[in-house]
Design brief:
Helix content: 25-40%
Order of helices and strands: HEEEEEEEEEEEH
Strand content: over 45%
Largest sheet: 11 strands, parallel
Number of helices: 2
Radius of gyration: 23 Å
Length: 148
């Protein structure tokens, strides 16, 4: 009888241990002591607090650039939140947020841009997703005028 109980206890702890590890790991993280040169590609949300030179691709996920980060890269992501320094280009599917104390010297492509007071931005912004609506409205207006 003691034998099955001793086996049951380890199985229970083995089942809960992976779940606990998954709960703790919410996002991939590059610490502030890390310097990375090259192409950084992630298929999960990522936070960077170190120095990156090259390119960062987090296509279907959220990238957070922490307050200690220094990024010189071409960035591609679904969403980007900047607390640190970025130079290069940002190609973002949805939203870019530049928070108080952040410095961004980059050309941006995004649907939505939010810049908090106290943030610094220098670059060109191209808004996506709205052009199709504008073109459709212009076409409809031209068709209506032509009919009259």
């Amino acid at each position: 009888m003691p034998h099955p109980q001793s086996q049951a206890a380890p199985s229970t702890s083995n089942q809960s241990a992976p779940g606990q590890a998954e709960e703790r790991r919410v996002v991939a993280w590059v610490g502030k002591s890390v310097v990375f040169r090259g192409d950084l590609i992630s298929s999960e949300d990522m936070t960077i607090d170190g120095r990156i030179e090259g390119s960062i691709e987090v296509r279907s996920h959220h990238l957070t650039i922490g307050p200690n980060a220094s990024i010189e890269a071409d960035v591609a992501a679904r969403q980007v939140t900047v607390f640190g320094k970025v130079s290069g280009s940002l190609a973002v599917e949805e939203r870019v947020e530049i928070r108080h104390g952040a410095t961004v010297e980059a050309d941006l492509t995004c649907q939505t841009l939010a810049i908090q007071e106290g943030a610094y931005f220098c670059g060109k912004v191209s808004m996506t997703g709205r052009q199709a609506k504008t073109d459709k409205a212009t076409t409809e207006k031209a068709a209506t005028q032509a009919a009259h």
